[in-house]
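User: Predict the structure for this protein chain, please.
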Amino acid sequence: MVKTNNKIPVGILGATGMVGQRFISLLQNHPYFEVACVAASERSAGKKYKEAVLGRWAQKESVPRNVGILPVYSIENDTEIIARKARLVFSAIDAEKEFIKKIEETYASRGLPVVSNNSAHRWTEDVPMIMPEINSQHLSIIDVQRKKRGWTTGFIITKPNCSIQCYVPLIHAWRHFKPQKVIVSTYQAISGAGKTFKTWPEMVENVIPYISGEEEKSEKEPSKIWANIKGGKFEMKNTPQISANCIRVPVSDGHMATINIQFAEKAEKKQLIEALKKFKNPLDTLNLPSAPKPFLTYFEENDRPQTRLDRDLYGGMGISVGRLREDPTLSWKCVALSHNTLRGAAGGSVLNAELLVKKGYIS
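Assistant: Here is the predicted structure, written as structure tokens:
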């Protein structure tokens, strides 16, 4: 483990937004990392961080004093300063995809590992999209990325969309039963849109049956998570087929999903629950600070998991499952829950960075 008196200095790109704020809260007193600099758009550049987020701070904890006094740098114009101050940057930029790609590649070219929360590079052919408990072996593509781009210490990795965090782990745990088809409906919190009830009063007592781009991400991203790497390239896995409905609901945090799944192999309820409880998590031996133990939790109660009760399971990094029962049309169905801004966003990226440290990609 990295010693607490020798922490890795990190920068936060997009530090004033909701996910950027969550990064700052999570990294306060982190045993590996210390926030050394923050960056945002030109609108915030030049201000102290506490001034830039005045009236916008959405976290339960106050702005950490050591971060609040930091100057906000420009994401575009202060890359040299940030490259001097940080050895790693977390990317939480909220902008057009091409802009994000350009910025993340700029920082990587300056020698910085870029751990991204954004979707911009998820389908870039040499960028791994990591869910550590499932496809940490995909970090090997970093060597291909560096060689192709002429980078030595810099690289880019990203994490998958928040909507898939609660159901992809279940399907992975049940892979022995050969899942063929999945119908998933996600009920997604307003923080996934970077909003609170204060900033989005229209969501009070309202449900919106459409989230732009979300269903496509939910259906397609698992194919890269489960991909094989051959000849330095991803070979996507297109089984199981996934059909998704994504709905915005009036909840502050926590994405819930109902999952209907068809298996090629016969499975009993006891076997499926046992597979969740005995999931062999490759992170268990690494002792990563943000890794939940256990990764998957099954609730026997018929009314669990519940968003308010269970979204913060194991620091918001655990996945909870319940209501497993036979499906009259497919094979089985259940309900699952994950915290969208912790497991699904900043927390997932911090876990990725911890894995990179353990695997020697960040010293």
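The first strand starts at residue 8 and ends at 13.
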